[in-house]
Amino acid sequence: MLVDVLRIGLGVLFLVAGLVGRRFQPGNPIGLLFVLAGCSWLIDRVVSDTSFWWLLPQNVWAPLLGHLVVAFPTGRLHTVPRLVVVGAAYLETAVLAAARAWGNRALLDTEFAMTAVVGSGMLVLLVRQWMCSSPAQRRTLSMMVGASLLAVGVVTAWAPAYRAGMQPPYVALVLSLSGIPLAYLVGLLRRRMDRGAVADLVVRLSAGHPRASVRDALATTLHDPELRVGYWLAEQQRYVDADGSPMAPEPSNVLTQVNRGEHRVALLAHDPVLLDNPELVDAACAAVALALDNERLTAELRARLRQLAESRDRVLQASEAERRRIERDLHDGVQQRLLSVAMTLGLAEATAPHQLTSEAKAAVLATIDELRALCHGIHPPVLTERGLHGAVRELTAVTAGVDLTWELTDPLPPQVETTAYYVVAEALANVVKHAHATRTVVAVTGGAGSLLVRIEDDGRGGVDPERGSGLRGLTDRVEANGGTLRVHSSSRGTRVHVELPCA
Amino acid sequence: MRVAIAEDSILLREGLTRLLAEAGFEVTAAVEDAAGLLDAVADDPPDVALLDIRLPPTHTDEGLRAAITLRTDHPGIGVLVLSQYVRVSYVAELLESGADGVGYLLKDRVSDLAEFAAAIRRVGRGGSAFDPTVISQLIGRRAHNQGQDELTDRERAVLALMAEGRSNQAIAQRLSIAERTVEKHCTNIFVKLDLSASPHDHRRVLAVLRHLNE
Asked: Could you give the ipTM of this predicted complex?
């Protein structure tokens, strides 16, 4: 009696699961498979005809359930192994129905082997699907896969157990099968609840959380920890992440655009499993559109800052290269030519002395001198000849009482060398002009992708970086390179400390 | 006197060759880079090697490095470095192996044939020839320190010419004073600067330059 109630109850449960599924996911065949399985199960209990055309529908519930669990959650069998295994299950049922209808004992004896092959095929498919799924997919899959493993295992082992003379309680079969529709119904219920979580999302965002949390809040609500957000920059026609660097979604990601009214706000790169629950994604997108739009403005600003920094860097590099080139061109061209004129005039002066020759020679020499000063202003030639180390050594050699500490082995970018050179030159010029120092220390060291320059004297101090135009210009130069300049001046001396990034 | 030249500008190289021929020198080689000069010097050693600082292939300090190599490998050959710029720190490098037969002049000096020829001869004979610009930088630098101020203007002028590598006779000529007076100034300078070498010693240039360079 109890067994009959359970039997019919299970059939009804299949039907209910199918109908609920049809209601919430009309396009998904899973619901239909449940309904068919329910009908087949109920026919089996009420009809006891043994002709083939009755046996087939009575037994088809088993392959239908197998089909359903293998096709879960999309309801489609889009790989060959799945098609093969599910097809084999239907074929087995048809063959066994025929064997039973026409009393073919030999075929009936192979039932156990056939069921074992098909059942283990399904088990392998389920386990593989589980292994290959993302955390977000596992959330949907876990209960269904668990229930299916149990049911497929029990069904596969049922007939051989009987044949071996065991009497497994029928209740166990019914209960194990009922796990499948129950897991399905719980999953549907959870989707409804997820949509309710969007309300929490709105509350969480309105509480004014810091920047990173919009993404985190979305990731929590959509149950996709790897979710990424790209903000739309209309001017540049591209998406950037919160730091302003270009967004690069994974190839496996599905992209969902978030709009606010007419205009594009952001792009969500999320797990494909969310496609099964478009209502949730839509609701979440609608809820965060405003917050994302605000974030987008910040991201746009960051992207613009990044661009500015990059272009400033390129301009600095180009100007550095240009200055080097001009200095070299002047050295190799005009200067040499003027020198050869001076040489010729000197020769003329030696062989046929004349007042005008001497005047012309003096004028050429004065021009060469001016050109030399000009070249020095364009790009210090000693940097070209000797690099920063030699150039700083020269600076400390022409100033009295300077000790140089040099702890640097890695080569530096040209614009960093030039800036460091001007720092040392200007600071030493200040020491000579104003400090009345007896000892000065110049220390050039490096560490963690930056260059440190320190110039320290024991003079009378009184240096104000805001007043002297030299130090002001130096600060601009250092800051243009992304570095910092600090001056500490007291009656016991002055310390200029410069840090330049050289990545 | 025999001279080998390394200068990458063809204009200057040919000008120098002509100039030196005019001044009575024999030019044994006129090449465009340091490697060429080192080969030429090994093949046919001149009395003086004349070289530019910026030479191919990198146009940085090849000439200076070649000069230092020559001073070590061929101590008998005078080395005269020419450059568009003079650097105090390069003087120190050149002086590391003594002040005999070494010189460092601004290229501008080629416009005064007599002075230039005299400088080459001095270097060729084992003397020295340093550019007045370097010397004035060194002396100017020392002026910031104590002690230096005790020198009179005339003594300073003598010190500068002495540091350039000139003989007492040349200094006397330049300043239009008697050679005896120059000698007296030299002795005073050496006493005031507390230099141990004798003012008559041929190594006095080194002593003075080292003192200035300290």
From this structure: 0.89
